[in-house]
Specification:
By secondary structure, the protein is mainly alpha-helical. The protein is built from five helices and three strands; from the N terminus they run αββαααβα.
Length: about 150
């Protein structure tokens, strides 16, 4: 039974890694599409380095990337180091779960940014963050709730 739990944790960890990698590389994708003549687009790096945008939402691509790198490290450690202390092992999926929720909230804040109206639209990079965060959230939900259930018993 313990071997089955380890295999399930590795499988869900690998699935979470795929979502996290999608989140991290989304900074290189288009976050804003401006439908004008000619069409203009901005990647996550463009938004972060643009001095014309003074709203804090232009930093969301970098914030999500930093969260993703932290999540990536935590998932790699939890998969590659099987014999760590129980407290650390229990806290890693919870942290990744919470960071996934934060990433989804940041996507919503970005998508409702007042700069985004006609002709400006949310680009594929923001949706990649949403998809990656949902994949990661689903993958770590079982681990996180199992840990919380163990703590309440």
């Amino acid at each position: 039974m313990a071997k089955l739990n380890i295999e399930i944790n590795k499988a869900t960890g690998t699935l979470a890694l795929m979502g996290i990698i999608l989140m991290v590389f989304s900074v290189l994708m288009t976050w804003l599409d401006v439908n004008t003549n000619p069409d203009i687009s901005a990647t996550g790096i463009d938004l972060f380095s643009n001095d014309d945008l003074d709203d804090w939402q232009s930093n969301i691509p970098m914030i999500v990337t930093i969260l993703g790198v932290i999540m990536l490290i935590l998932e790699f450690v939890s998969i590659l180091v099987p014999n760590m202390s129980k407290k650390i092992e229990a806290s890693m999926p919870l942290i990744v779960f919470v960071f996934s929720l934060i990433s989804i909230i940041l996507f919503v804040l970005f998508a409702t940014w007042d700069e985004i109206d006609d002709p400006v639209q949310v680009g594929g990079g923001a949706y990649a963050v949403l998809l990656g965060a949902i994949i990661c959230l689903c993958a770590t939900a079982g681990q996180a709730f199992a840990i919380l259930k163990q703590k309440t018993q």
